[in-house]
Design brief:
- Keywords: Membrane, Transmembrane, Transmembrane helix.
- The chain has about 160 residues and is mostly helical.
- The chain has one domain.
- About 80% of the residues lie in helices and about 0% in strands.
- Helix 2 runs antiparallel to helix 8, helix 4 packs antiparallel against helix 7 and helix 4 packs parallel to helix 8.
- The longest helix has about 45 residues.
- The termini are far apart.
- The relative contact order is 0.16.
Length: about 160
């Protein structure tokens, strides 16, 4: 059952939808982009430094993503005892995996020095965009969890004062 949930979380995600959209747009408009957007004249200095973008996003996600499962020492026990915690853990696992797996094509394209080709630029941009969406998902999750835990803590404090 959990394996099916892992697959559901991966395939029904904004990241996967974005990558699918990138593939469809590329397949439908390859000739148009090849004709009107020549990439041979890309700045070599920019190509050298562009890899910092996906690596930076991945490092941020790996560092800050832990805050989704461990928001604060005070509230960790409440979160880990939550009956649907396993679903949060699945989302976390898929998100962390996405960070790593989406960085690999960016590195490969960069190392093969194919960023100045349409396919290479498209792959790099698509996966860097998916990494950005993934990082934003972690950021939004941290905010939502903190908000929910604050409300829960306030409700518990209120109940203790009323008794």
């Amino acid at each position: 059952m959990r394996m099916l949930y892992y697959l559901k979380v991966f395939f029904f995600s904004f990241e996967f939808a974005f990558l699918l959209l990138c593939l469809i747009v590329y397949m439908l408009s390859d000739d148009f982009f090849s004709q009107y957007f020549p990439l041979r004249s890309m700045n070599d200095e920019a190509i050298r430094w562009v890899m910092f973008f996906p690596i930076g996003i991945t490092v941020w996600t790996l560092k800050e993503g832990v805050g989704v499962l461990f928001p604060s020492e005070k509230n960790e026990k409440i979160l880990h005892e939550w009956p649907d915690y396993w679903k949060l853990k699945v989302h976390f696992d898929v998100g962390i995996s996405n960070s790593i797996f989406f960085t690999i094509p960016c590195i490969v394209v960069w190392l093969l020095d194919t960023l100045n080709t349409l396919a290479g630029a498209w792959i790099f941009t698509g996966f860097a965009g998916a990494l950005s969406i993934n990082a934003f998902s972690f950021y939004a999750a941290k905010i939502s969890l903190r908000s929910a835990l604050i409300r829960l803590d306030d409700d518990n404090n209120y109940d203790n004062h009323v008794k």
